[in-house]
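1st attempt posting a full record on here, be nice pls
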Amino acid sequence: MTEHLKRTIFLALGGLFFIIGLIGVLVPILPTTPFMILSAACFAESSPRFHKLLLNNRWFGEDLRRWERNKTMKRETKKRATVVIVVSFILSISLLWGKTVWQLVLVCIALLLLYFLWRIAEHVPQE
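the predicted structure (as tokens):
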């Protein structure tokens, strides 16, 4: 793959993940942080300017810098993500009332998401 094509693909993916992350700010069912992390990773490969803009953002820049620095999350961020996952999956499962197989699939997905979320190392503030 040529360098130009690789850069273009990462730039397009970074933009897509950024837009999905922005939608997640407005729609509580859609998580923002994972898409911003993906966006930052793509921009790191394609656009130093966009990457820097994300890392310096006042709302999620701190979380992204922490993730890039040491792959950790604050416990408070994990708690918020857990609430969003649980609430959104409860709503989705209730909409599928009577469709037991799909409800079980959603329960399994939610449990997997929570499992991987809580396996991420927690940020310990340095004194």
